[in-house]
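Worked example 2:
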Amino acid sequence: MDMSTTCATCGAKSQDYAIECSCCGNCYCSDKCKAADHQKKLIRHTWTDFKHIYETIMKSDQNIRVVTISDLKGEIMYSGHREGTRNLLSSKESKKSLEMALKGWKIRAELAPKIGRGKYVLAEYEKIKRITMPMGENHLLYVTTDVACDHSLLVERIHKMYLT
């Protein structure tokens, strides 16, 4: 009986070392293959995949209020807020906040050749924290949390799930 696992990215078979991804269930022979597969998926996601990303991130921390995934033009791929959470901004204000975040990431992309690619940006307000981070080359993740959220731990979790 063959007990080997096939890598979802390169097709290599491994009996000893396999990484099973907690978000998608695929197996990989290395972290490099996992990152390559996830990067590819983020570029080619369907609406269903964006919903899965939203649900996985939302489940990762009870302090998350809102998760929005948009393309770099501001088109929202998927967005939702935690049940029972009251929106602090109007729909128009939320859109403006997303547009400001996108503009900031476009400027960071211009500076990247000199200082490196941005990993995430945190804005902490009196009532919420807002975390934004690129997802692949074509999307932005926009998350708001309660102030009590351990944002460092949340960012690390998201990076492990989707960006590494």
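The chain has a mean pLDDT of 84. Residues 46-163 form a domain with the Beta-Lactamase fold (CATH 3.30.450.30).
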